[in-house]
Structure prediction request, 305 residues.
Amino acid sequence: MADTLAPGELRRFLLEGHPLRGHWVRLGSAWQELRARRSYPPVVESLLGEAASAVVLLAATLKFAGTLTMQFAGSGRVRLLVAQCSDDFRLRAVAHHDLADGEPASFEELVGSGNLVVSVQSDASAANYQGIVPLEGSTLAECLERYFEGSEQLPTRLKLVADRERAGGMLLQRLPGHGGAAGGESAGALLQSTWEDLQQGLRSLAPEVLLAAPATALVQQVAGEHDCRLFGATPVSFACRCSDERVAGLVRALGIDEARAALADQGALTITCEFCGRDYAYDAVDVEQLFASEALPRAERGPLN
Ligand SMILES: [Zn+2]
Prediction:
């Protein structure tokens, strides 16, 4: 089916006459590419798939130019999870964990206690943004609902799911205001009952249906009898942002002594991108050149810097 083969797709929908909106995402080959870069135990893999879907949904709801990062570093078995999505929906994600393959673990055991951090690195300027919420909840979706409630003040419901083939999710959001032309109490009551119907519709979606059914059918099931407008698909792909320049920056950050020590130990300094598995290798000449080219601008700034 075309759905399975597509790298990934994102679609937005609106409830007519109400300040209620939703986003749906499904990752196909983008998810398969992402998880093929490293081997994860099934419980970590499905958390990573949910996180990859979630970061796309977050990127869809927030207006930004640059890269959005969702990460948590807690006391659990997954020490670190990072998922990133650019404003044009290029996605990457990685997790560090200490689980054996096939070892079971609950969500709470995986994440432990810590914070979920959502940040935006802007392309343009210093217009960066960060939101932090404690990792509380029994699923990643619940943690993110709390994130939206706390950081964005937007009532939000989320369902996330992943298997080996696909990952995906749906997000519902209630925006401020009553919407429509009518005001007053009856409009408020109508909005509230529509919002409750939507949430009930989302709860009714079985995980295997959310992973496989066409977006039109899913949105129809969630919206029920309410008029709903589903917008066209935006492609989502797996892509890494690593580059020679970025990795050179990492080597500089190590410092020349540590870089030389690594060279002496191993004959070469190799840095592997965690997200895509690409190797960046530096021999002794590369390392010396890297630090020599850094020395010039520093010297120009004068001794006080
Ligand atoms: Zn990379």
